[in-house]
Amino acid sequence: MIAIGCDHGGYKLKEEIKKYLDEKEIEYKDFGCMNEERVDYPNIAKEVAKCVQEKKCEKGILICKSGIGMSIVANKYKGIRCTLCHNEFTAKYSRLHNDSNILAIGADIVTVNEAICILRMWLATEFEGGRHKERIDLIQEIENENMK
């Protein structure tokens, strides 16, 4: 199950991504927004991040104009590794080396086709483990020290 959310700037792209997920029969839970009326992105990012953090959804997708604000909010949650990806390379390595559990996309940065390619790569790539697991453990130590 994937948690998906956007603000008004990412609404159109979110709807296109949902079509892709439907075609691939990938289940998702939509946290909004549900139209192009102005919303505050932190509220949407919070709900998606909490859903992934609480393991109600395995992964998440956040979309706004740049992807930056959404990723900042999501990364305030312990255990969340939200990565802003602009191409297939960054999507691949966000999973392979960083075990990203939330993908952030900038709707004004990539086309619909590029976003689908990014998502496809992100979903298809497994975490490599090994020395990268050691680094994830270090990230978790830092979280434990600083997120009380």
Q: Top keywords for this entry?
A:
globular, 48% helix, alpha/beta, 148 residues, Ribose 5-phosphate Isomerase B, Chain: A, 5-stranded parallel sheet
In brief:
The chain has 148 residues and is α/β, with parallel strands linked by helices. It is built from 6 helices and 5 strands, in the order βαβαβαβαβαα.
How would you portray this structure in words?
- The protein is of the alpha/beta class.
- The protein has one domain (2-146): Ribose 5-phosphate Isomerase B, Chain: A, CATH 3.40.1400.10.
- The chain is built from six helices and five strands; from the N terminus they run βαβαβαβαβαα.
- It has helices at 11-23, 41-53, 68-74, 88-96, 112-124, 131-146; strands at residues 2-6, 28-30, 59-64, 82-84, 102-106.
- It has a five-stranded parallel β-sheet with strand order 2-1-3-5-4, with helices on both faces.
- It is globular and about 40 Å long.
- The two termini are 28 Å apart.
- The mean pLDDT is 97.
Number of strands: 5
Report the C-alpha radius of gyration, rounded: 14 Å
| The CATH H-level homologous superfamily | Sugar-phosphate isomerase, RpiB/LacA/LacB
CATH structural architecture: 3-Layer(aba) Sandwich
Stretches where pLDDT is under 50 for at least 5 consecutive residues are: none
Q: In which order are the strands of the major sheet placed?
A: 2-1-3-5-4
**Average pLDDT metric:** 97
Question: How do the SSEs run, as a string of H and E?
Answer: EHEHEHEHEHH
The CATH topology assignment is Ribose 5-phosphate Isomerase B, Chain: A
Shape: globular
Q: What separation lies between the terminal Cα atoms?
A: 28 Å
Helix count, per DSSP? Answer: 6
The share of residues in helices is 40-55%
Largest sheet: 5 strands, parallel
Q: Return the structural class.
A: alpha/beta
Question: Can you tell me the number of structural domains?
Answer: 1
| Beta-strand residue percentage | 5-15%
